[in-house]
Amino acid sequence: MTPTPNASEPIGIAVIGAGYWGPNLVRNFQASTRFRLRWLCDLDVERARRVLGGYSTVQVTADLDEVLADPRVQAVAIATPAGTHLTVALAALRAGKHVLVEKPLAATYDEGRRLVEEADARGLTLMCDHTYCYTPAVLRIRELLHSGELGELHFLDSVRINLGLVQRDIDVLWDLAPHDLSILDFVLPPGVTPVAVAAHGADGIGAGRACVAYLTLQLSNGAIAHIHVNWLSPVKIRTAIFGGSKRTLVWDDLNPSQRLAIYDRGVDVASPDELGDEQRRDILISYRSGDMVAPALTEREALRTMVDEYARAITTGTPALTDGRSGLRVLELLQTASRSLTEGGTMIKLNEGRMA
Amino acid sequence: MTPTPNASEPIGIAVIGAGYWGPNLVRNFQASTRFRLRWLCDLDVERARRVLGGYSTVQVTADLDEVLADPRVQAVAIATPAGTHLTVALAALRAGKHVLVEKPLAATYDEGRRLVEEADARGLTLMCDHTYCYTPAVLRIRELLHSGELGELHFLDSVRINLGLVQRDIDVLWDLAPHDLSILDFVLPPGVTPVAVAAHGADGIGAGRACVAYLTLQLSNGAIAHIHVNWLSPVKIRTAIFGGSKRTLVWDDLNPSQRLAIYDRGVDVASPDELGDEQRRDILISYRSGDMVAPALTEREALRTMVDEYARAITTGTPALTDGRSGLRVLELLQTASRSLTEGGTMIKLNEGRMA
Amino acid sequence: MTPTPNASEPIGIAVIGAGYWGPNLVRNFQASTRFRLRWLCDLDVERARRVLGGYSTVQVTADLDEVLADPRVQAVAIATPAGTHLTVALAALRAGKHVLVEKPLAATYDEGRRLVEEADARGLTLMCDHTYCYTPAVLRIRELLHSGELGELHFLDSVRINLGLVQRDIDVLWDLAPHDLSILDFVLPPGVTPVAVAAHGADGIGAGRACVAYLTLQLSNGAIAHIHVNWLSPVKIRTAIFGGSKRTLVWDDLNPSQRLAIYDRGVDVASPDELGDEQRRDILISYRSGDMVAPALTEREALRTMVDEYARAITTGTPALTDGRSGLRVLELLQTASRSLTEGGTMIKLNEGRMA
Amino acid sequence: MTPTPNASEPIGIAVIGAGYWGPNLVRNFQASTRFRLRWLCDLDVERARRVLGGYSTVQVTADLDEVLADPRVQAVAIATPAGTHLTVALAALRAGKHVLVEKPLAATYDEGRRLVEEADARGLTLMCDHTYCYTPAVLRIRELLHSGELGELHFLDSVRINLGLVQRDIDVLWDLAPHDLSILDFVLPPGVTPVAVAAHGADGIGAGRACVAYLTLQLSNGAIAHIHVNWLSPVKIRTAIFGGSKRTLVWDDLNPSQRLAIYDRGVDVASPDELGDEQRRDILISYRSGDMVAPALTEREALRTMVDEYARAITTGTPALTDGRSGLRVLELLQTASRSLTEGGTMIKLNEGRMA
């Protein structure tokens, strides 16, 4: 088995897949002092060469085995289609390599579980590239929810719409909702989890799969989370509202000068515990109209932070912030939402006996 | 019975209710040459006086009977709480007065139906003040959908959120969704109708009623309509996207310089009819990336246009654009959505044998 | 002479001029308990009647003398063209009435001075309706600059552009810049005053007067103020940036949800006093990148606050916040800017021996 | 002399300067099939190495002579401080290399002229990297102004403000205004040229040089152009309005979904030629309130297009769109504006006998 690298020498890495996402991984692993990029591997060698450009010393191959046989390679980053994640990642784990997988972790929950089990059994790092979780904005949202600064979460409304590429093999839910679901999984404070999910969708244009979808999640604290994903919108919107009992946060990812806005504005109610049942209907409600604060955020590429976290997880042997288990929880939500979609929008309870 | 007025003399009108909406009606009926405002009636006479101000010649009373007995009054406009609409409107119709009712038409579908039947039986105008339908923006949207300029409707996504007054007697769905549902009813081209509705909601703050709600409607042409209403958002959003097969329209009601934007941008697919079943999955999809046009709109207060339409309906004896029946259709949608809300979000078919 | 009213009874008021601005004054004086509107006076009596509408008890006349002879009238509000301000206001002051004048105070500095002297001599209130000064936003800006929260003012940049009505008798500078100049006069902390002004302009469309103008003002503390006014812009912009040594404030008057934004973000330099001349060029500069705060503002119509201030000035006998002298200072700036415009943009010192 | 390359083989290029701008040039020359990057040259070799990263085959040197002696190098791209442009570019031209220079062309007009003359004498390409001119937005604006679609230009208002790095050696005018002036030079239709320039500025923070500046330019057709550049603004604005006789264009470079908006909205006047002198003051003015069109723009990196244009100029031997002469015209404007700044804002005529 490939020895766990120590912090003083760079980790040998290979990127598998030179398609849409691969080039971003190549660029960020090259820029990191914690890694040494050894290979870019793609079935289409010419594509891999184009990605590296005409001035690169990085090796190119179409042969995964060649990469996995290289003892200088201690870790891989997989950016191939979801349907191939199981095979590629399993091969890498079995070759003793640490594994980073592009979202979603695998094509199904069961496939994802096999990867988690394999990595566990071998004591290797398995990490899911939930890139958004590493943006300065989402890291701050997590902090605000975990620290209690927003109070208890009442509702989350997320919109991710755009004129998106209609995918051949997956619907809009599997294409876009992993972002929102991984963010949800990442920022929820300990003890608050999704308990049920429903999904509605439509295929207006006759594409053979949903191009517009709405997810509704019930959370364990009674809150509601709602996600709107859409390939057909001519305007691009990436906004989420986190309604808390103390403050409400608005995240507008397309407004670089004010990505986060925290409103000390909202509705107060007397605590239900202090009131008798009779009074519940005449509950005292008051309005707060306070200031808004837009915190200064460092501008740092999320992928760079993700790459650092991968290095940290490998060298310390502790789980990454977005480890295989988080990828598995997202898969469970996706799979259940898909079932609801085909069942006409029924609210489906999540399996309580699930592994993750 | 009060004779139908002819176009040359103003219609005597009384406004019933001097609360939140009444003052707007008072102002607009006073500004119209088609009406002569005779009374402002409210149980709280002092409130009525304050609404008129210290310089008015309009009469004030707490006694509805006094108003209805006045032969100079040919029509009334009712802006009292929804629970009183049946009683007040029925009394007015029975006194031979034309009736305009603030939305919603009545507290229940059955009450609404009694009003429609009463007006029909007496040959009187019954109109519902679906104010938004008379904005220049919605009138234009209707035109664009009816004329086919947007093509066939694929999806409608409407968001109406704000820090709203938590109502004592109704939830956010009954408070805000009538706007979106009446607009939907108004703009849909002939032959396209809602066929089923589901609603999810949450009462995060313990107010005893839903403060956040999501409605999903299936339309008869396979399209989806989705409405997000929310009392707890610190930011105010009033946006709707109408995705059509030819063009997509974005309505941002809070952007006065660009309320409507029509995008010649979208996704084209080869007609499903031209393809065999096998080909459906490999359907040819292409992207259009065209210009956006923001049409110039006249700035005109919607209530003024609504008041004109009331006069037109009364004098011609033809139904108003938002007549009692449209109010009834909105009530059916609201009532069904409410049922879905209590049933955990089930998709419920609308009654096909319904009257309207 | 009309006795100064005491606070317990309403002040009898007459509005002179029923054109563009008059109706707003009529509405606000009617809504105020501190005033009793007696007359609306306009050479065109029909226009005055239309403004009041068909339900008003307020008297109408074309005869100013009739108004001034009415002992119930203690104060007037003048909204006639600037060229008539001297005659009308002088007549009112000589009849012992308090006077509020729409901006600008008069057509020339000398005319304005005659009004100030006349009011002084008679101990009457002379106030200029610099409406913007009474918006919650400008009142807050004044507070922030006077209290030192923004630090010392370094620069002010104001943009007020729109597709404006090309005026027959005045250029864009006299039409729009009074707003910005009165705001500048209102918010500058004690001791900081304009010392010189330059103006550039253009009449692109051949209208016979400048339709686009730029004003540059030097302030006594070395700061610069710049104003862009423009009748030809298809987009409406009303933004001002107040750059202070501690914080920078951005006022966007067309963004009701965030009119003011205070940035704790900027450039710090070591104090010049601590450095020798040699060091001035290698001065230590550091950047702060702090949060932004958008303070909650009460939404209150500026004219209502202005009307209250008029009542306060009359009843206490103390100068209004925007008294005749402030109107005079604005006139001096306008007149000097006009001279600079005709002289090709020369920077002209303001008369230090000026009265105000 | 290095032979002019033919279109079929890549042009050997060296980038001189690995500071702020150099890395962008390196990236784009590497991505272009028209060039082959041979050297990155910087006095600080380590910095050059860091720019190339740990996987590059490109050669690094601190010795300009080594680069210029390399016969594989046919062209250079200079991204060193402006004060060194003359020396470096002259050496390159004398070595027979084509030269691309970062803006501004040189530190003074006279230095710039020496470069233009040297390149002319040797028949070599001299190009200035006015990057903004190669954005899809500016290319479209040029097209719209040259084709007459906007009509005659009446005014141009450009705002480029941000929290910018206070430069050690140059003021805000020399730092930012080259962008706006090169754009102006680029888009003005044939026959319309600047004839005079004035500049006002301030150094609020005691930085020893202007941090805020306003330029006013008179154009030969009577139009006005105004430029606001500012290092001290906490908000970033990059907007320009081009007011034409037929349409007005608004360019918001920070709004990727709607960078250009063309308004068919404005003010019409009867042609002055049709009117006698007497009538000029009572000129007939009418308002148009038309639609707005936001044209679809290709998203393409400007530097890539600039690099293509450099290759085109070299291989065809014809001047680049932003050749040395355009760089020289921008220098004349900058130098004259600087003089006006020190002279307190005087409007200074541009030298009519100038070379360019």
UniProtKB/TrEMBL annotation, chains A, B, C, D:
<dbReference type="Pfam" id="PF22725">
    <property type="entry name" value="GFO_IDH_MocA_C3"/>
</dbReference>
<feature type="domain" description="GFO/IDH/MocA-like oxidoreductase">
    <location>
        <begin position="139"/>
        <end position="243"/>
    </location>
</feature>
<dbReference type="InterPro" id="IPR051450">
    <property type="entry name" value="Gfo/Idh/MocA_Oxidoreductases"/>
</dbReference>
<dbReference type="InterPro" id="IPR000683">
    <property type="entry name" value="Gfo/Idh/MocA-like_OxRdtase_N"/>
</dbReference>
<dbReference type="InterPro" id="IPR055170">
    <property type="entry name" value="GFO_IDH_MocA-like_dom"/>
</dbReference>
<protein>
    <submittedName>
        <fullName>Putative dehydrogenase</fullName>
    </submittedName>
</protein>
<dbReference type="InterPro" id="IPR036291">
    <property type="entry name" value="NAD(P)-bd_dom_sf"/>
</dbReference>
<feature type="domain" description="Gfo/Idh/MocA-like oxidoreductase N-terminal">
    <location>
        <begin position="12"/>
        <end position="130"/>
    </location>
</feature>
<dbReference type="Pfam" id="PF01408">
    <property type="entry name" value="GFO_IDH_MocA"/>
</dbReference>
<dbReference type="GO" id="GO:0000166">
    <property type="term" value="F:nucleotide binding"/>
</dbReference>
